[in-house]
Give the backbone structure.
Amino acid sequence: MAQDPERDHALQEYKGKLLETRAMEAKLRAARLEIRTLQKTFDVSEQNIQALQSVGQIIGEVLKQLDEERCTFGEVDTTSRSIAADSS
């Protein structure tokens, strides 16, 4: 039973397209996996930024409550500093 050359050509094209489709599906799966990984990394980064902003707000609120009478920055009494010396 001889096969039709047109049919053989169509089957070869079909096989080629099928392989091409499978390769594209594999690339798509890999890209989706990469997107999931990147999304998780992004979510962790967002949580870290939000935590940092919260800490910054708390520090800002504390500093706002302080005034010059309660807290002075930059004035250090260097005369009261003592260094332990060997007395042996």
Remarks:
- The chain is about 70% helix and 0% strand.
- Helices lie at 5-65.
